[in-house]
Design goal:
Number of helices: 9
Structural class: alpha/beta
Strand order of the largest sheet: 3-2-1-4-5-6-7
Shape: globular
Largest sheet: 7 strands, parallel
CATH superfamily: NAD(P)-binding Rossmann-like Domain
CATH architecture: 3-Layer(aba) Sandwich
């Protein structure tokens, strides 16, 4: 049987207009899970600011999110801005642009990240630095910019950092990303305490398997190689992207004001799955179809 399907696309988990008059800043919000999250905020009346390094992602955000915001009927708008979250000056310039056009963002969704599978012994220093720089440093630079502006303005706000379950468990084949996401999880807990007195709540949101159009090659390959994928999930199904969007809109909403420093995993309990007997160990190299390491 598994877990029931969610309500249909377009349903809302919060009252209509919950985010009317609120600007939501989403990094990497032009495609994939970031766009799914931005869509649900737009349905609830938010104005959406999407930041990305890629022009095609920004164009996609305008094309896909504007009709949603218009249909919501609460005056929400959509704007985009180029931003390299690895560069604090670029982050500050993006916030300047958003604040000038839509006002100070009330919600920040730190969604942008980098990831690709590679055995640790094959990982170049540049690969390590790139993933950590985008995923960990970029998340901090955006959170820092948001926090500083809200503290100076004396107004409350909400940050949601997108994490990963291997922040707790480790991620063989993804040592760079797992280490970075562990830092992101810790950042949630640290900043929630530091900035709570200023009215800023900080939470994390961890997605499970949510098939979408912008999946990385390793996820696509995993889905292609595994028959009956739903049967590999305790829920007996994968996630629907709107379910992640609903979780994000709740965490940042007025109905979750006393939730801070928490990381919510939305994966149908998949990351907690255990078996009574241990399966054979298959090395990361074998899983990737790689031969012996030769240095």
């Amino acid at each position: 049987m598994g877990l029931p399907e969610p309500p249909e696309l377009g349903a809302a988990a919060l009252p209509a207009g919950t985010y009317a008059g609120t600007t939501v800043f989403v990094t990497g919000g032009g495609t994939g899970l970031g766009k799914a999250i931005a869509t649900e905020f737009a349905r609830l009346g938010a104005s959406i600011a999407v930041a990305s390094r890629k022009a095609e992602h920004l164009d996609a955000a305008v094309a896909d999110l504007t009709p949603v915001a218009d249909a919501a009927g609460h005056g929400g708008r959509v704007m985009v801005t180029t931003c390299d979250i690895r560069d604090p000056d670029s982050v500050a310039a993006a916030f300047d642009a958003v604040e000038a056009e839509l006002g100070l963002p009330g919600v920040l969704i730190n969604n942008a990240a980098a990831n690709f599978p590679v055995p640790a012994e094959e990982m170049s220093p540049n690969a390590w630095r790139t993933v950590v720089d985008i995923t960990l440093n970029g998340t901090f630079f955006c959170a820092r910019e948001f926090g500083r502006r809200h503290i100076l303005a004396g107004v409350p706000g909400s940050i949601v950092n997108i994490g990963a379950s291997y922040a707790w468990t480790g991620g063989p084949g993804f040592a760079h990303s797992a280490a970075a996401k562990a830092g992101v999880k810790n950042m949630v807990e640290s900043l929630a305490v530091e900035w709570g007195p200023y009215g800023i709540q900080v939470n994390g949101l961890v997605p499970g398997l949510f098939p979408h159009e912008d999946m990385t090659a390793d996820i696509k390959g995993n889905l292609a190689r595994t028959h009956e994928k739903d049967a590999c999930q305790p829920a007996m199904r994968v996630g629907r992207v709107r379910e992640l969007g609903w979780a994000a809109t709740f965490l940042a909403s007025p109905y979750a004001r006393f939730i801070s420093g928490h990381t919510l995993v939305v994966d149908g309990a998949n990351w907690q799955r255990r078996t009574l007997t241990n399966p054979p160990v298959v090395t990361v190299r074998d899983q990737m179809g790689m031969g012996p390491f030769t240095g």
